[in-house]
Amino acid sequence: MPQQYTPNSGDRGYAVTHYDLEIDYTPRTNRLDGRARMSIRMLDDAHALNVDLVGLQAGKVRIDGKPHKKVQQGQHGLKVKLPRSLPAGAELELEIEYGGRPGPRRSRWGTLGWEELEEGAMVASQPIGAPTWFPCNDRVDDRGTYDIRFTTDREFFVAVTGAPGAVSHKGGKTTREFSLDVPTASYLVAAHLGPYAEYAGAASVGAAGLGWRIVTPPAQRAETLTAFEHVPRMIEAFEGWFGPYPQPDLTVVVTAEELEIPLEAQALVTFGANHCAPDEQRLIAHELAHQWFGNSVGIGRWRDIWLNEGFACFSEWVWSEAAGGPSIAEHAEAHYARLAGLPQDLVLADPGPADMFDDRVYKRGALALEALRRTIGHQPFRTLLREWATQNRHRLARPADLIALAEGHSPAPLDGFWEAWLRDPALPELPPRAARRGAA
């Protein structure tokens, strides 16, 4: 039986089609006050809704503009009893005022969510950190659009997931507006505020000529711009493999702090100051690739996380080869040798919540793709990847969808291949390299 990955998060009885968030944050006191308007569509008949909210206190609640008192708040969020039972397909607007001193929540993966910094704050939400700063239906398969207005002290710059909009000033505070019109899971909504400045990317990204920006402290501007000067070339290389850049925007945030790992959000990627080193280029490629895999092509179950991370790791190898470094095949063989020496007790199709972020999931997922390339041939594989990314643009997908697509590009059945790579704990043999012109 599949394991429960986030059992205390989300309500499968409804979906949020749109979030309208107003947030006012004071860094010196770490005080956040917010208002969330959630446009809801019922998926099942129900008489109550569960809304995720952690560490913050709900105040006034309204349903369709009318005050509503039948609300209970617990450790993981709110239970909102509806005025009457609603059938599947019904729609309503839920408005929640809330506030408090935000902070991270504890989880089996460490502390997640809102993090107060020496100067400002940041949010790393994957997989269940979003409720630490706004009420939400925190499910990986629930994707909505967003309008966000974020107010804070004027000396702080704010970057939030979404295309930047209007900026206004009042009484020593600045409000910045952001909009996100592609379907987005709550874990992919990020926020950063600090003594930052915004710098335009040196060249546009993608075939559409999209402008992009870097947000970083002025003191590290020069090294940051140098470290990320290859972003347009990376996007160009990925478009050649996966199709057009799927997002309406791109913001690169580089914090003053060192971060253990970088992290993707929808149309926004976050790095620490330590990721500006020349040997960190693979991580930049990895996070940019998530704009296709994980952010556009999404998963409906956390057990399928290899579809996000395996594709992003494979993309690191794509960039390496495109940039004149080690080839895809060379990277695969090096990582295969390393994985072969590690415990063989992980099932890629269902690694379990404790191991969902294990590096073996990432690299075995990438190796499964390389094994598929060697099995069906390079050109059919490239066609498959492009179809996967474009046909599932801003949609949820499952391994079964990839399996069905691969069957259409394979000269022979692949049942045994997928059984070995996805369901057997033992690492399968990596097929020998297939000869092809112009690459290893």
Break the fold down into its secondary structure elements and pairings:
Layout lengths: L13 E13 L4 E12 L3 E7 L4 E7 L2 E2 L3 E3 L3 E10 L4 E10 L3 E4 L2 E8 L2 E5 L18 E11 L3 E4 L2 E8 L2 E13 L5 E4 L2 E4 L12 E4 L4 H7 L3 H12 L8 E4 L8 E3 L2 E4 L9 H9 L7 E3 L6 H17 L5 H13 L18 H18 L1 H14 L3 E3 L1 H9 L7 H9 L17
Parallel strand pairs: 1-12, 18-19, 19-21, 22-23
Antiparallel strand pairs: 1-2, 2-8, 3-7, 4-5, 4-8, 6-7, 9-10, 10-11, 11-16, 12-15, 13-16, 14-15, 17-18, 20-21
Name the features.
33% strand, alpha+beta, 440 residues, five-stranded antiparallel sheet, eight-stranded mixed sheet
Characterise this structure.
With 440 residues, this protein is α+β, with helices and mostly antiparallel strands. It has helices at 221-227, 231-242, 281-289, 306-322, 328-340, 359-376, 378-391, 399-407, 415-423; strands at 14-26, 31-42, 46-52, 57-63, 66-67, 71-73, 77-86, 91-100, 104-107, 110-117, 120-124, 143-153, 157-160, 163-170, 173-185, 191-194, 197-200, 213-216, 251-254, 263-265, 268-271, 297-299, 395-397. The strands form 5 sheets. An 8-stranded mixed β-sheet has the order 5-4-8-2-1-12-15-14, with no helix packed on it. It has a 5-stranded antiparallel β-sheet with strand order 9-10-11-16-13, with no helix packed on it. α3 crosses α4 and α4 packs across α5. The longest helix has 18 residues, at 359-376. The mean pLDDT is 95.
